[in-house]
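[job 4471] stage=fold_predict status=RUNNING
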Amino acid sequence: TGLADNVVERTFDLAVDCTGNPNGFDLARRALHPRGTLVLKSTYAGNLSLDASALVVDEITVIGSRCGPFDKALEILAQGKVNVKPLIHAHYPLSQGIEAFDHARQRGVLKVLLEMV
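[job 4471] inference complete, writing structure tokens
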């Protein structure tokens, strides 16, 4: 709902699903045009149903991406043992997402934050 209702199907080259919800996978898949790339940053409770034929026909590339456990890293951050401020090069509101991604692509830029405002 919300922004998801405004996604135009078969529009994007790349979609990243980090929702953890099978509906997020479906939305990300429908947003891709043929030969697009779907990055899965999610794991799902239970099984995920998908139409493999549609992935094949549209020649969709599916990439799984996972990070390891965060407990120790979050603990260190919470204790202030690491100063992350020098790593953050810019903050953008979500409405300027395209500009944020353009900025993030620049050589030497480590982290650009999108803020949900």
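[job 4471] summary: The chain has two domains: 1-66, 70-117.
[job 4471] exit 0
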